[in-house]
Every structure is written in structure tokens, then in C-alpha cells.
Amino acid sequence: MSPSSLIPFEISGYRILPLSLPPLPSFRDTATHYLYLQPHQPKLPTPTAARSLFLVNVPFDATELHIKNLLSIQIGLPHGRLEEIQFAGSKSKVGRVEDAPTKPGKGKQGKKRKRGQESGSIEEVEGIALPAVWDRELRKKGLTAVAIFVDRPSMDAAFKAVKRIRKDGTTPVWGEGSEGKIPALGDQRYINHHRLQYPARDELLDSVNAYMTEYAAREAAQARLQARQRQVPDEEGFITVTKGGRNGPARQENAQDLVVKQKEKRKGLEDFYRFQHREKKKEKAAELTRQFEQAQEKVKKMKERRGTFKVSRHTDLYFGGCVDVAQPE
User: Fold this and answer.
1) CB-based burial of residue 297 (10 Å sphere; 0-12 exposed, 13-18 middle, 19+ buried)?
2) What totals of helices (H) and strands (E) does the chain contain, helices first?
3) Handedness of CA 9, 12, 16, 21 (dihedral sign)
4) Measuring CA to CA, which residue among 120, 119, 118, 128 is closest to residue 222?
5) What number of other Cβ atoms are within 10 A of residue 112's Cβ?
6) DSSP of 283-314
7) What is the pLDDT of residues 77-127, one digit of tens each?
């Protein structure tokens, strides 16, 4: 009885596919590697999720050619049904690959973003890089990947074929059919690495020029955005302070018009919270007290200005009698 026959067909919803690792000059014994597969269930649904398989414990030397051969010819299906292989952590047409399907209550907390690593920075220029110094990428142990098929029936057929070859007792040989189509490992890998560390001058110059051109374009766009932010007040009426030139804000009348418009938009929201009610009552009481004190002061000044009077008696020859006249003291 082979060791593979003692391994269950499924575990926790994953189908298990044993792979035979061929001997190497450094290790001449045949080894068995176990690959786990299940339909892809990402945290956020994607257009390709319904026709994708999620792979766990992918061998460290896996390439797209390895996976396409394994999930087509090596399990008895026609070639050409796989559209793309997305390895964990690598960028693709639909974004980054998830590390694992969603499980309730086991969300993965994101790491804090360090200062200077904000997304969209002008240092990140996609599609432009220095010449590669390795001819082939090696991956971490226990890596995950997503195999995207051309349609849902092709994915279902591959998933069923895994169970069928397990029942037949067949163990696919890892890398079969890709000999001579991918760069070799071993000492040849490091010979190529040494050669690629010294690229041709024209190739290096083209790469640097392309990067600097794109960098300058993004830097100019970012400067225009900051200049626009320095001239437009926010909803509170403040001007955004940004790093860069010394250009003043917009004209005062334009800024005041924008502030008035923002205040009109916020009408009806002044008394939304309780503390706003209390503050408004306090302001009203203070205003009444101030008006009362102003009225008292006004009456006092009027009394001082009017003064006091005494009545004196004078003889009026015209009327032929005495008249009382009030005169200020």
C-alpha cells in the first residue's frame, strides 16, 4: 500500500492531490508533495470567482506553466482551458490574490501603513522597472494561488478530475511536460543571475529614461493638484496648507462667497446635538443681559444730561402778572 492511499480524498472542504517530485542531483530520492484545491470563495466577490480554483501549498518552484500543465494534460483534460494563474501577493489584471477564502470570525487585520508608503505615491510607477536580475521567480513555502478557467464547466471538470485520478491511484509528476521550457534551477540559475546583474548600457538607459519621464509627469500632476488645493477653501472655509510654492489663496471676495455658500448648505444642522441647544440658550441669555445693561447705561446718561431744575417767580409786564419759570441750577 502506497503512502498516498492512506491520505483522505478531502479535508476541510479541500480535495487533496498528491504530486510526485522527481529526484534531483542534490537529492536523489523521489518525494511526495500534497496540493489542496477547492472552488474559490474570495472575501469580495470578483467576476472570475465562479470559474476559479483556490490552490494551497503550491510548490516553491511553481510557475504558470507548471499549474496549467497539471490542471489540464496531467489530469486527463484538454490543454487551453486555463486563462490565468494568480499567485498570492502578485499583481494581476483583477488585483491582488487573497491569501485564503473567507471564514466567519477569522478576519485578518491589516498592517498599519508606514509613513511614506501611502498608495498612489509617485515613486510607484507600474510597468516600468529596472532589468530583472533573476531569470525565474521562486516562491515562499506553502504558497497559495488561484487558477482561473475560461468558463465554469472547465473549472468543474478539473475539480472532478482531481477526485477521479485519486480513485485511480495515479500520482502526477510535478513539472512533467515543462522540461526545457523554463529556466533551470541549481548552479545554472546563479550563473544566469551573475550575468543579468550587468545589463547592456542601452537597455539600462532606456529603462531609466522611461521611469524618469513617467516620474516627472506624475510629479507635475501632483504639483497642479496641490496648487488647486491651496486656492479653494474647504467646507469649513479654511485654505488647505500644502507643501510647495508660495502662491497666495484665491481672491478675498471669491473665498468669502464660497464660505457663504458652505454656511447656507449647513442651515438646519445647527441644533442637531444637545450641547448645541445649551450653547445657544447661553448665548441668548448673555445677549439679553448685555442689552439690559446697555439700556441702563443709556437711561443714566439721559438723566445726567437733563439735570435738575428750580422754579422762580418773575413779573410779566405784558400779561400784567407774575409767571413761574423753571431754570436749571
Assistant:
1) exposed
2) 6, 8
3) negative
4) 120
5) 7
6) HHHHHHHHHHHHHHHHHHHHHHHH--EEEEEE
7) 887 788 888 888 765 554 445 445 544 444 444 455 454 444 444 455 666
